[in-house]
Amino acid sequence: METKEAVQEAEKQPVRADDIKKQITKTGESEFIFEELSVEMEGACFIPLKQLNQLRRDGLIAVRQAAVQSFRRTVPASLEHASFKKACQPLKDSRMEDYGAGMARCLACAMVETIEQMEVILQYPQIDRLYVSIHAFTGDAVPKGQGREACGKAPGLLQLNRAVKQCREAGKAFYLVLPAVWRMDTCEKLSAAMGFQTEAETKEGLKRFLDGLAAQIDGIVAKNMEVFTIAKICSEGKALPVHLDFTAYAMNAASIQCWKELGAASCTFQPELNKGELYHLAKKRTLPMELVIYGHMPMMVSAQCPVRNTKGCSQKKEILHLKDRKGNRHFVINYCDTCYSIIYNSDVLSYIDMRQEVRSLNPDSVRLQFNIESAPEVKQVMDCFAAGYSGEEKQVQWPEKVTRGHWKRGVE
Ligand SMILES: [Zn+2]
After folding, report:
1. Which residues touch 41 (CB under 8 Å, ≥6 apart)?
2. What is the model's pTM?
3. Per DSSP, what are the bridge partners of residue 9?
4. Taking the domains of the chain in order of start, what are their residue ranges?
5. Which residues lie closer than 8 Å to 52 by C-beta, 6 or more apart?
6. 177 CA → ligand 1 middle, Å
7. Distance (Å) from CA 339 to ligand 1 centroid
8. Cα-to-chain-centroid distance, residue 379
9. Per-residue pLDDT averaged across 248-253, rounded?
10. Could you tell me if 132 and 177 are in contact, meaning their C-beta atoms sit under 8 angstroms apart?
């Protein structure tokens, strides 16, 4: 460290070593103290106090930088990947008109985990759009090797093609829901679980798979930022709309605007919002917003294989039940095709019979979400929804305790 100006020769009062020491050791509230400080000077010197103070401040900054240097990380080049930047441009695509129209008319959507659930929904003309989990096309549902000979494709892919076709024939848009957790090996695991068999297929399986798929499907649902990024990269060039689930942070107008700038097509109201917050956000929205009006809410997402240390990983999707210390039952879905799990509340959230309130919020779309419901349970909920749609009242025997989420909470 050097002072900006050189030391001058003193005309009247030369500076003393003690004065310099006193000024330089004033480390005050910084994280440093001097253990030792030696002053060397020759002759009668003069230096303004201001310069000594500046020297001390600059010195402390330099020491601090040197101390933390080893903890700095460098951003890997791949994060600045051109395709990411390009993929994150806002959408300009005719398919967005779907959303424009949605502003005038509220779309009805249904999210399902299984083909069985999807097939029930297909019977209901009220539903405009289906969100189908990618996990519906892996594991048990796809006996390995079967059907492959017929068309040279992986069985999971075959099933997916069939599901897309079924939705189209029923006049519904098909959105694919990507996993909630995406690890380094998720792509490989998914393509293996879907039945890609050659090495090349498995290696870049999902990328190619989504590339091929993008031409057929109408959109992708992402549950968080990293999956959103994957979805954007995979659908690059096809300008597929990416819809964000409520687990992607969108608690206020600023975060929704941020998603818009990143190129998201639409967001979901978060279940933590109370009525006042919902109405406020609905007014300030800059993207189409979806409201979940039925479904079990997730309580925790765990990025671990939940059974590796107990009974061992089955590499399949399965449902377990938990009881907490208050005796409340919850259920866990192990997505062991890619090894993560989600704990769901066994109480089910429902606004189906709150049509007046939902209508006054004016969401761009409403969603019914099915996780563990059996086909008859899906039918029961759908009947209730359909009845409300045509203005009838229909009492439903709910399979579980019904909650109103946070809608009725908070100060208005
Ligand atoms: Zn596992």
Report:
1. 7, 15, 17, 20
2. 0.71
3. 45
4. 8-71, 83-403
5. 3, 20, 23, 24
6. 20
7. 4
8. 29
9. 92
10. yes
